Amino acid sequence: MRIAMIGTGYVGLVSGACFSEFGVHVVCVDKDAGKIEHLKRGEIPIYEPGLDDLVARNVAAGRLSFTLDLKEAMAGADAVFIAVGTPTRRGDGHADLSYVYAAAEEIAANLDHYTVVVNKSTVPVGTGREVEAIIRRTNPNADFDVASNPEFLREGSAIGDFMRPDRVVIGTSSERAADVMRRLYRPLYLIETPIVLTALETAELTKYAANTFLAAKITFINEIADLCEKVGANVHDVARGIGLDGRIGKKFLHPGPGYGGSCFPKDTLALVRTAQQVGSPLRIIETVVEINDTRKKAMAGRIVAACGGSVEGKTVGVLGVTFKPNTDDMRDAPSLDIVPALQTAGATVRAFDPAGMHEAGKLLPGVVWAQDAYGALEGADCVVILTEWNEFRALDLKRAKALLKRPVMVDLRNVYNPEDMAAAGFAYSSIGRPAAPSAKA
């Protein structure tokens, strides 16, 4: 089989490479000439563990290629996937579908045989019908069907999520299109992956419903963590106690500074706007959005409090700035609220991130970037863990204490055990856990 993948961003590149691993011939298309040239040279524009090897292997096998020419990519294709960005539209919170609709027009101009047009981008309900209408207006004689095939890829583990997914959702009313999609996903069918066939609108809503539910779950445990701090309970024990209930599950019950990334902030807001537009508001998700925004802004206050009530003239060492580990993605990362707030309060911020510093440097002016974790600690009045990269989980605490001006740690990811930190002589604070007796800062 052959497919064209429009867009070489996170979703398009990972999906295209994974399909090629299934034995499908994939041509990835992008308008960015520089990006295509980099990909042809084997240079991967995003950080995703294992992606460079996956791309190189399938390019060498002749199953994966890159081009600027959509007509070339669509020649003989069984399906063409739209995997372009749908960022939040400035001003109203709706998803910006201009890239999706522009892709639909270009696809229409190049349709010369039966092709399934697949929305892989995260799009609001009704987008598939509009894509179909655009193609029919542009090319009335085109032989095609539109399908929705939302992605459920987690950054940092996207390849595994594609190869061994919990489910594959396909939305289409055409049996002809469904057959093409089944053949594309046959390797997953053979390992008994659930294939959920639905109407177009149902598939579109399923993606948003999944992400907003997970965002609500994160927000719930964050609020429970705040309550734990007030009553002397331990949020990790609470999370385990409720997570063992099969109706609830243990995933996404880890407290932190608030969710970020390319999906949850954008998708929760887009679903809120869609629901308001059709007169069926989602009060729970509206509250989730509000609480998460407030939480990220409030985190700087925790750090200031740990530093004695003021960071004026002090240095704060920050470990991790990306929204999660194993990615270089800075979109809606909590650090984008926390770091500027510390700087406004008079602090110098010295930071290190294993993968995100190049992108973060554009978004966080004035930060002093260190070469490693210990470089961020040297001479600092406080160290803050913002992102739980594995290399921050086993710091040499004696070395860290010696480098710091004051042995103060604010652990916003609950990486360390309070008792261990107290024994190491740190004034340690975390989220939703009782403080252990600690050394004076």
Automatic annotation (TrEMBL):
Catalytically driven reaction(s): UDP-alpha-D-glucose + 2 NAD(+) + H2O = UDP-alpha-D-glucuronate + 2 NADH + 3 H(+)
Active site positions: 263 (nucleophile)
Pathway: Nucleotide-sugar biosynthesis; UDP-alpha-D-glucuronate biosynthesis; UDP-alpha-D-glucuronate from UDP-alpha-D-glucose: step 1/1
GO process terms (BP): polysaccharide biosynthetic process
UniProt-annotated binding residues for NAD(+): 30, 35, 86, 122, 155, 266, 331
Enzyme class: oxidoreductase
Gene3D superfamilies per the UniProt record, alphabetical: Cytochrome c1, transmembrane anchor, C-terminal (1.20.5.100), NAD(P)-binding Rossmann-like Domain (3.40.50.720)
Keyword hit for Oxidoreductase: yes
Location of the UDP-glucose/GDP-mannose dehydrogenase C-terminal domain: 317-418
EC number: 1.1.1.22
Cross-referenced Pfam families: UDPG_MGDP_dh, UDPG_MGDP_dh_C, UDPG_MGDP_dh_N
Amino acids binding substrate: 152-155, 207, 252-256, 260, 324
GO MF: NAD binding; UDP-glucose 6-dehydrogenase activity
Keyword set includes Oxidoreductase: yes
Keywords: NAD, Oxidoreductase, Plasmid
Family: Belongs to the UDP-glucose/GDP-mannose dehydrogenase family.
The protein, known as: UDP-glucose 6-dehydrogenase
Organism of this sequence: Azospirillum baldaniorum
